[in-house]
Design goal:
Layout lengths: L9 H8 L4 E5 L6 H14 L8 E5 L2 H15 L8 E4 H12 L10 E3 L1 H15 L5 H13 L4 H7 L3 H19 L2 E3 H14 L9 E4 L7 H10 L6 E5 L15 H8 L4 E4 L2 E2 L4 H11 L11 E2 L8 E7 H18 L9 E5 L5 H10 L4 E4 L8 H14 L4 H7 L9 H14 L3 H9 L11 H27 L3 H12 L1 H8 L4 H23 L20 H4 L2 H11 L11 H4 L2 E5 L8 E6 L15 H12 L2 E12 L10 H11 L9 H14 L3 H11 L19 E3 L6 E3 L13
Parallel strand pairs: 1-7, 1-8, 2-3, 2-6, 4-5, 6-7, 9-10, 11-16, 12-14, 12-15, 13-14, 15-16
Antiparallel strand pairs: 17-18
The protein binds adenosine-5'-triphosphate and magnesium ion.
């Protein structure tokens, strides 16, 4: 049997082998969409003889890209997968821009402004221009404009009132600042790439197939890009699920599925129906939640696994008690499974990253290893940001914001006023802050502002750190001075260690460890380059007759490293992958958990205001978010809600959970609730759907004997307990623990 088609059901097989030009695979969670897409890439490589550099594959997160590459490797296994043009939309767009950006007037050595960079720019513009618009609103509106391809000029031309005009000015200044610093933000990467491919279609003349995962979360520009990629050879495969569209708040367009069908009337749609991920009971409860959306076409998930354990809903007095309970439960599950469940089998999925604090502290106290995904990123840690800012300046001296952030960090006697004077001076001369500082230190110009002797000394030190590092960097090409050495040089020259020691007496060790971690990552990258592994940009093939950037000459570790940092959305540790990750509990935002799966999933803080979130505009999107979270679970699913939230306010059970729990309770199939939950449910129901039956039913529950509820502690096994073995197929009996093994390990 062909290993690529092995283990696929007939519908999946049809999708993998289909010879149509445009294909949409629309299916619910866990039905094997990603598996199908991956198999199709392998199939195109091996059975249709497509060359990997002629295939573009877009995923939604860096992690998904990495996993997909690993899956393809296991199917083709000859190193071909490394040559695919595979990555997030942003990274693929970035690759084209670096290679061919010169054709649209872009300096191909551009830096990438991540979310916090671009927020800082907006903040500064608003402050210095005396604008009144809120920084977050302005930032988000800029992104919204860009997602819809509206330029600042276009916006200005159509603005109708003073408020819109003010925003247009902020938007336009923002664009100038990025341009002057040679920076592109995330939206620019997509927009500029679309522009490049429109004006210079030859760049994609080689592309033979385009495949996209999680299509329901694409925006208009991404849809446009997809079509541009496929403009020579219309060969497009997308997979998606409208029920899992959760990025509307970032201007994703659920309508893209229909738009695509209209643009390509020959689109073949394949539906997959069986769910291979979750137990029947978990699916039933997730279904209860999503079905509350009345505008959605009725679809059912077909479980391929047995019913398994019923999901559990737990009500606890406080958020702290909830965190304690959750960690105890993880330990209990592990113990009952005879440690066959590893920490890596558990995930805690949160509506907002901020909820992780209490849970992290209990995990830490208990010595349980964990990793945080989608929250405060490793690269956002203060000490890591300092080093990265120095690297950015070394790479791009015109990066004004990076210069502003670290010109006096560690403190070297350069006061705020001095910095302001220098910035003003730079602005009026229309040069970068760095150029002004450099000219001043080198005695080439005088500035109007008075600079104290001490500040002058500080400025010289700063300039010397950057210049010596830049020199080392150029040496690096000839003498093999590594990126890790460059970082060590920066920390030494700036005296970072002493600075951190003085400033963070309590947790200096942790902070210094982060800096060391960064050095370790840089060393990994050095090693990869030394092994001759090509930077990802190299996967784009040379196109005859089209001028392109010559990588070998200009590409070095630093710019690749910085681009990777800016495009990664998660905590990255050099040791994170593989064995290590298997030993860590995952804490993740629900958004970042998309497409992934775990044996045991906890969804804490299921209260009104958290999910649905108090600031969310679209209740249906919030409900889909809970649905995405619930459908990540394979075997055990826990929902919980404290009576008082972390701010000690009353927390009402999430109406999504309350209504679903209520309706399934009496059908004897879904989440089983405890006394507190029922009480709170009755309260919510009274408010949400004041029908006598609902309330009467809830109240009836309250008077039932405690034994009728799911006993959360000390439960005796009733079903033979099973779990897959390491090889993936055979199930192994687990004595003393009550759950049914489902699914196959990848
Ligand atoms: P999501 O919508 O959450 O992204 P998905 O549709 O992409 O889900 P996959 O992640 O591809 O689903 O698959 C879910 C799980 O089911 C994976 O563990 C996968 O290996 C398994 N699976 C998919 N198809 C089959 C099959 N035909 N036989 C056995 N297992 C399968
Ligand atoms: Mg998927």
């Amino acid at each position: 049997m062909d290993p690529i088609l092995h283990n696929l059901n007939p519908a999946q097989k049809a999708a993998v082998t289909s010879a149509v030009s445009v294909l949409q695979v629309l299916a619910p969670p866990g039905s094997g969409k990603t598996k199908t897409l991956t198999a199709r890439v392998a199939y195109l490589l091996t059975h249709r003889n497509l060359r990997p550099w002629n295939i573009i594959v877009c995923t939604f997160t860096v992690k998904a890209a990495r996993e997909m590459k690993a899956r393809i490797k296991s199917l083709v296994g000859d190193g071909t997968e490394a040559k695919l043009v595979l990555g997030t939309f942003h990274s693929v767009a970035g690759r084209y821009l670096r290679r061919y950006g010169q054709h649209i007037g872009l300096d191909s050595n551009f830096g990438i402004a991540d979310t916090s960079d671009s927020k800082a720019v907006v903040k500064r513009i608003i402050k210095s221009g005396g604008y009144t618009i809120d920084c977050n609103i302005a930032r988000s509106r800029i992104s919204s404009c860009k997602a819809k391809s509206i330029s600042s000029d276009q916006y200005a031309a159509s603005s109708k009132n003073a408020e819109q005009q003010e925003f247009a000015m902020v938007y336009s200044e923002y664009e100038s600042v990025l341009k002057a610093s040679n920076l592109l933000d995330y939206d620019d990467l997509l927009l500029r790439c679309a522009h490049l491919l429109q004006t210079h279609p030859q760049c994609v003349s080689n592309v033979e197939a385009v495949l996209i995962d999680e299509f329901q979360d694409t925006n208009i520009v991404q849809l446009d890009l997809m079509n541009q990629f496929a403009q020579y050879k219309k060969h497009i495969t997308i997979v998606g699920d409208p029920d899992q569209s959760i990025y509307g708040f970032r201007f994703a367009e659920i309508m893209n599925l229909n738009r695509m069908q209209q643009q390509h009337p020959d689109t073949l749609i394949i539906h997959l129906e069986e769910n291979y991920r979750s137990s029947g009971a978990i699916l039933a409860s997730a279904q209860q939640v999503i079905e509350q959306d009345e505008n959605r076409p009725n679809k059912r998930l077909q479980a391929t696994h047995g019913r398994g354990e019923r999901p559990i809903l737990r009500r606890l007095p406080t958020a702290a008690a909830e965190a304690e309970w959750l960690v105890t439960e993880i330990k209990r599950c592990r113990a009952l499974s005879g440690n066959l469940l590893e920490y890596g089998d558990f995930a805690i999925l949160l509506r907002s990253a901020i909820l992780s604090r209490l849970i992290e502290s209990v995990l830490g106290k208990e010595g349980i290893p964990y990793r945080m995904v989608g929250g405060t990123r490793f690269f956002d840690r203060v000490e890591v940001k300092i080093v990265l800012d120095y690297l950015r300046i070394i790479d791009q001296p015109n990066h004004n914001d990076a210069v502003l952030r670290v010109i006096n960090v560690p403190p070297r006697g350069i006061g705020e006023q001095t910095v302001k004077n220098l910035s003003d001076e730079a602005e009026s001369e229309k040069v970068s802050l760095w150029s002004t500082v450099l000219a001043l230190v080198q005695g080439r110009t005088r500035v109007k502002a008075k600079i104290s002797v001490q500040a002058m000394k500080g400025l010289s030190t700063f300039v010397s750190v950057i210049l010596t590092s830049r020199k080392r960097r150029t040496d690096a090409d000839s003498n093999n001075v590594s990126l890790a050495d460059l970082i060590a040089h920066v920390t030494r020259k700036t005296g970072l260690e002493d600075y951190l020691k003085g400033k963070y007496k309590e947790d200096f060790d942790g902070r210094w460890a982060s800096v060391q971690e960064l050095v370790a990552q840089a060393a990994d990258m050095d090693a990869a380059l030394a092994r001759g592994e090509e930077p990802e940009e190299e996967t784009l093939p040379a196109i005859e007759g089209l001028e392109q950037r010559a990588f070998a000459a200009t590409q070095d570790g630093l710019s690749v490293f910085l681009a990777n940092v800016a495009l990664s959305t998660e905590v990255q540790k050099s040791t994170e992958d593989g064995a290590e990750a298997q030993q860590q509990v995952t804490i993740s935002t629900i958004h970042a958990a998309k497409g992934l799966e775990w044996a045991v999933v906890f969804i804490p803080a299921c209260y009104e205001g958290s999910i649905p979130h108090s600031r969310a505009e679209d209740t249906n999107e919030e409900r889909r978010l809970l649905y995405v979270a619930m459908t990540r679970a394979q075997v055990l699913l826990y929902l919980s809600c404290p009576v008082k939230n972390s701010k000690k306010e009353d927390a009402a059970l999430s109406s999504f959970v309350a209504s679903s729990a209520m309706s399934v309770l009496f059908a004897q199939q879904g989440p089983v609730v405890d006394r507190h939950a029922v009480a709170s449910m009755a309260k919510v129901l009274r408010r949400e759907c004041p029908t006598t039956t609902g309330i009467a039913a809830a109240q009836a529950c309250l008077h039932r004997d405690a034994d009728d509820y799911w006993p959360l502690d000390g439960e005796q096994p009733t079903v033979e307990s099973r779990r897959w073995d390491a090889g993936g197929n055979d199930k192994v009996a687990l004595p003393g623990f009550n759950f049914v093994g489902v699914g196959h390990r990848l």
